[in-house]
Amino acid sequence: MRSILRIGYLVLGLATAIQGSLVLHDDSFQPDHILRVTARDYTQACMERYSVLVNGSSPGPELRFQEGKVSWIRVYNDMEDSNVTMHWHGLTAFTAPFSDGTPLASQWPIPPGHFFDYEVRPEVGYAGTYFYHSHVSFHAVTAWGALIVDSIEPAPYEYDEERIIALSDFFTKTDEEIVDGLTSTNFTWSGETSAVLVNGQGRLATNATGSCKLAAISVEPGKTYRLRFIGATALSFVSLSIESHDVLEIIEADGHYTKPVKTSYLQIASGQRYSVLLRAKSESELRNEKSRQFYFQLTTMGRPTVLTTFAVLEYPSSTTTDLITVPATPPLPVANITYGWLDYTVEPYYPDYDFPTVEEVTRRIIINVHQNVSERTVWLQNGYDWVQTFPKSPYLVDIYEGTLDLNASYKRAIDSGYGFDNQTRLFPAKMGEVLEIVWQNRGTVDNGGVENHPFHAHGRHFYDIGGGDGLYNLTENEERLKGTHPIPRDTSMLYAYRKETTALAPSGWRAWRIRVTDAGVWMMHCHVLQHMVMGMQTVFTFGDQTDIKAQARTPGRGYLTYGGSVYGNATYSPSVRHFF
Ligand SMILES: *[C@@H]1O[C@H](CO)[C@@H](O)[C@H](O)[C@H]1NC(C)=O
Ligand SMILES: *[C@@H]1O[C@H](CO)[C@@H](O)[C@H](O)[C@H]1NC(C)=O
Ligand SMILES: *[C@@H]1O[C@H](CO)[C@@H](O)[C@H](O)[C@H]1NC(C)=O
Ligand SMILES: *[C@@H]1O[C@H](CO)[C@@H](O)[C@H](O)[C@H]1NC(C)=O
Ligand SMILES: *[C@@H]1O[C@H](CO)[C@@H](O)[C@H](O)[C@H]1NC(C)=O
Ligand SMILES: *[C@@H]1O[C@H](CO)[C@@H](O)[C@H](O)[C@H]1NC(C)=O
Ligand SMILES: *[C@@H]1O[C@H](CO)[C@@H](O)[C@H](O)[C@H]1NC(C)=O
Ligand SMILES: *[C@@H]1O[C@H](CO)[C@@H](O)[C@H](O)[C@H]1NC(C)=O
Ligand SMILES: *[C@@H]1O[C@H](CO)[C@@H](O)[C@H](O)[C@H]1NC(C)=O
Ligand SMILES: *[C@@H]1O[C@H](CO)[C@@H](O)[C@H](O)[C@H]1NC(C)=O
Ligand SMILES: [Cu+2]
């Protein structure tokens, strides 16, 4: 008995030692994926712009991870004058400490000329559609790529092939001009999007000069396709439909299979993903059509101007597909916003279900969001903004250094009545709590304006319990939730319901429930890049110092300083902790 115990201790001790030691990432270390970030003039939709690129293009290369398996991704910052990070959008609960890619929240950014090795292990059950993007400045407008987590089990839906359809925005101003304008005391708007692109491609008008083309999505007659839609837009909330193909069947939202929902259109906000099944027309059906190419029609919603752009669904044809002609008049009706689209109706595919009931909720956090103009024009959460320059060092670093007292922060947050600590600008939560988080839209202080905000959560996905106009009313929403099965997701829309109300008047809410199970520093923010730059971001801590540090008692000093020894460069191989 005693010897077995001793062997047990020995094995345990050895395991701790191995886990705790640093591994030299020299030439013998092979990352699973390599991404190189640069900045240069780059042309899209026949327009040129100085842009941040991943592996020389926008979008960057598509990545594939496998559920249950560790992926190491080496990200090089080949820029001379900007930091970078890479964020694994939707997968953050499965990232190693310091690997979530949030600058000044979970890590120091990667300095110019350096690289960082990210470690991600998607949990089994999270196969689905994701994307990656830089979380610094306005980079994510171009510095992003599709990220698919492959399943080890067959998908619950059958399809022949899949296609990725990722949406992004084109702005004529550079990242620097946009950020300078938005943060200036002389506030200057970025301007509206100049083009909504599909897989980085687009064309605004037939007369555009240059070789730019509409994106072509090729399909073969009779086959069933899984179309994976990715909302990688900076700003645009897009309605999308396909000419002569009005039955789309939604099967996935934000990495989770859903029960099938038939629809003729999708609404995709920045940060959201959907998979739909599309049954391609048969040869005989095609014979009744005037053409073997059909337009995807994309319309922006909720902005002062409506932009309609196109891509092409292309069947094999003896003539070449025309990717230059843009329809003079849109073939489909120009879409309007559907408030509450999919809310209370879409259900999770798998019944293994951990939805927290209202009785289980231990704390309700109401986050009032509004815009105010003082010295600068800012978006505020309960009166406070959060920008990358607010903390002096990343929260996670401070937790390991012992300089951030989360117990004290938690006490201040509870005392405030809002769950918010205005000294650290944190929403701290303790393990085991069950939070209900309500985003409450309110009119701007100067003119009562309201906007749509797609709110995104890092960490484990929340259960979306819906949204509505006016002020959140718990009793009424509980009534609406009866008999429904809310889905887990990571980005959902706080609608505005109108363009204008009166200053600070409630105008729409969105509510989430989440069990505090995953210790860490998790940002929750609007995914519109302009709004983020203007302060529309919050940081939650889940767990106290002990819970968070339990994942990596002594991670190595190299994580704790900007450009520390876990950040490699051309002449230096870093020593890196293997957390998983
Ligand atoms: C990115 O580019 C680097 C070299 O420039 C290459 O080694 C790597 O394989 C590329 N990554 C992907 C995912 O294609
Ligand atoms: C890069 O990040 C460091 C640490 O946060 C910061 O001090 C520095 O100003 C940043 N550099 C640029 C160019 O933004
Ligand atoms: C404010 O910015 C606008 C646009 O960049 C510029 O035209 C204007 O001159 C600026 N005004 C001041 C007072 O700096
Ligand atoms: C294309 O035509 C439209 C409408 O005639 C015009 O407004 C636009 O300036 C033209 N664009 C180019 C690039 O020539
Ligand atoms: C959108 O709203 C406008 C104005 O109310 C209306 O004319 C149009 O038909 C609507 N479009 C659709 C697709 O419902
Ligand atoms: C708006 O900003 C002004 C000027 O800084 C300030 O006095 C006021 O309290 C702010 N109001 C709100 C509701 O944020
Ligand atoms: C925080 O409070 C918990 C009890 O709520 C305690 O166990 C823990 O030691 C405290 N941590 C620190 C760093 O004070
Ligand atoms: C935090 O809020 C309290 C109570 O409203 C206020 O007295 C204090 O000045 C605020 N502190 C900061 C740093 O904003
Ligand atoms: C919430 O709705 C219920 C039922 O409609 C109503 O009785 C109650 O007054 C509302 N609560 C608030 C705070 O408005
Ligand atoms: C590379 O990293 C090493 C170790 O951090 C550092 O001493 C050296 O100055 C770095 N080289 C460059 C060019 O930054
Ligand atoms: Cu927003």
UniProtKB/TrEMBL annotation:
Keywords attached to this entry: Copper, Metal-binding, Oxidoreductase, Signal
GO molecular function term, any single one: copper ion binding
Classification of source organism: Eukaryota, Fungi, Dikarya, Ascomycota, Pezizomycotina
Protein name: L-ascorbate oxidase
SUPFAM superfamilies: Cupredoxins
Cleaved signal peptide residues: 1-20
Keyword Signal in record: yes
Domain Plastocyanin-like intervals: 37-151, 162-298, 392-541
InterPro entries, per database record: Cu-oxidase-like_N (IPR011707), Cu-oxidase_2nd (IPR001117), Cu-oxidase_C (IPR011706), Cu-oxidase_fam (IPR045087), Cu_oxidase_CS (IPR033138), Cu_oxidase_Cu_BS (IPR002355), Cupredoxin (IPR008972), MCO_CuRO_3 (IPR035666)
Similarity comment text for this entry: Belongs to the multicopper oxidase family.
Gene3D superfamilies recorded: Cupredoxins - blue copper proteins
Lineage: superkingdom: Eukaryota
